[in-house]
Every structure is written in C-alpha cells, then in structure tokens.
Prior knowledge:
Blueprint: E1 17-25, H1 28-31, E2 36-44, H2 50-61, E3 80-83, E4 86-89, E5 104-107, E6 114-116, E7 119-120, H3 123-131, H4 151-155, H5 174-178, H6 185-195, H7 203-210, H8 224-228, H9 235-250
Parallel strand pairs: 1-5
Antiparallel strand pairs: 1-2, 3-4, 3-5, 6-7
Amino acid sequence: MTATLSEPAAVGEVPTFDVTLRIRRFTPETHGDEAYWQEFTIQAHGTDRLLDALHKAKWDVDGSLSFRRSCAHGVCGSDAMRINGRNRLACKTLLKDLDPEKPITVEPIKGLPVIKDLIVDMEPFFASYREIMPFLVSESQKPTKERLQSAEQRERFDDTTKCILCAACTSSCPVFWTDGQYFGPAAIVNAHRFIFDSRDDAGAQRLEILNDKEGVWRCRTIFNCTEACPRGIEVTKAIQEVKRAMVTRAY
Length: 251
C-alpha cells in the first residue's frame, strides 16, 4: 500500500500521509509459536518519528501491539528494533527518511529470544555486560580527594562512554546471531571504557576475560556494529584497540 496525501492542509498546517507499517508480530497466546506479519495503516506527518507511528498503531488500531519505549529521546536505548532491515532506535528515526510511499517493515532485533512482538529477552545481553565488570575497580585505599584525570587520559576512552546499552550493535553482528556464547560488541565496548581508564586497576582482569574463545577474537571486523550504533561510537575501532592491548600485554 502506498502512502497518499490526506485532505488538503490549511495554510501553515503540515500535511499528513497514510503510512503503512508492516510489523513482524509474535503473540504465542493467540497464534502459537509462529511469527506472522500484520500491516497497520495510520496517518502521520513526515516529521513524525517511527515511535510516534507505532504509538498510533497501538493506541488507535490494536492495543495488543507490544514494544518497549521509555524516554523517547535516544537516551534510554529501550526502543531498538530492525527498521527496513537496519537496527535503529524508533525514537530517532523520522518517517520522511524511510520513504513512506512504501510499507515500512519493523521487526525485533535479531539474536535474542522474542518474548512478544518487538520485545526481546535482554537477559543474555546483560549477562555478557555484567561479566566484563562494568564498574570502576580501585585496589588502592580510598582517596582523600577526587581522582584527578587529564583531558588526554579522559579522551582515551571518551568515545565508549556514550554506550546506552540498546543492543543495536550486538544484535547486528552475524557472529552473535550464530554463536550464543559470543560476548558481543556492546560488552567489549563497555570493557574498553574501563580498560583504558587511568583510574581503574582491573584492566588486566578484563583483558583475561575477553581473551576467552568467545571474546574479542570472535570479531570478524564486519563493521555492522559501528553502522548500527545510534550514538556514533566507533565500535569496531574499540574492539581492535582491545585486541591490540591483549597482544601488547602478552609480549
């Protein structure tokens, strides 16, 4: 179904379009274990976000449609999904950038068990995140003043502090799709954030964890993760820097 202009808009009024959402649904309570496709046609503005269109489909058409969202401003990372075959945040994706004249396909992110519709089980993702010790470790005594850090020291890991744990990078990785044990890009990015932090004392321990057969050496440098990151983190570069740190440490 194509998107068509609605009734002529008044002067100064933004015109609306009929937009078709083709959503991959999974509702075991009514349709068993088989996923299926359902189309929703709603009216929207070109400047609306995909999240706005999903809200209209849920609120005005079918209240059983399920998806995660929270802040709606690209900070919480809860509404990551596959939109026209690419991992994105629904709250940061404008309809005008998706060619609304064609049906917009929306699917759950890949590699994680689907609970319902666009909602996936994030526990395997967070289990890998917890395993790399995502917190500052200081073996020294409690400082009598703040731990100072130069601008250069902060810059060393600044990029990887931007992660919002949306799983867009990890669930775009073909290795993660086929290997349920792989740590995944997001866990490695968050390990990078502390490995290169001058205030942290557990870098060697994290490198040992990631030196496992399901750690950084499973990365095939495909760059899907970097392309998928909604915060613009150079994910593949961070993974390579962790690999290099392992080799440097070994020799």
